[in-house]
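note to self — DONT lose this again. spent like an hour looking for the file last time. sequence + predicted structure for the chain T wanted, 192 res
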Amino acid sequence: MAQLQKSIEKRNALVKATIHLVNNNGFHATPMSKIAKMANVSPATIYLYFDNKQDLVNKVYIEVKAAFTAYAFKNYNTDIPVAEGFEIIWKRIADFKLKEVQEAMFLAQCDNTPMIDEASRQEGLKHLQPLLDLWERGKQEGIIKPLSPYLLYAYSINPLSFLMVMQQRGVFQLNQDYLEDAYQAAWDSIKK
C-alpha cells in the first residue's frame, strides 16, 4: 500500500512539474530532464508512467481537462433552462480559471498551440459535451444564435483566458462586478 502511495505521489509530482514548466518555459523549452529534476525523481522514472514527452503532455492535458470540466459541470443539471444552465457553467469555469490558475494556464497553452496531438484534443473535447449539448438545445429552442460551437466558445468562454492572464500580470483585477459584466458580455454574445 505504501508503495502504491509513493507511486501516485511521484506521478502527481511529474504532472505538477510538467504544468509549471510548460507554463513558464513553453513546450519545446521543457526537456524531460527538467521535469524529472523539478519532480525530484530520476529521469528514468518518467518512463515508468509515460512513453515520451508527447505522451506525458497529452496525458496531463486530458487529466487537467477532465478536472476542469468536472469542476465546471458540478452544479449543472440538464433539466434547467438554457440561460440558467449557461450561467452556472460559465461562472464555474470562471471560478476554476481564477482559483486553479496554473492548470487553467496550462489548458490555455495547450488549446492555443499545436503541442497536443489531435487524438488527445478530441478526447479533451468530449469532456465539454454537456456545454455543447446545452448550446445545441439552446439553438433548437431559439435562445442561442445558430453558430458553430467553435464560435460560441470563442466569444463566450475564451475571453476568460485573456482576463485570467491579465489578472496574472497584475494589470486587471477580476472582482465580482467585473465578473458579472464579463458574464453578461459572454451571454449577450451568444444569445439570440
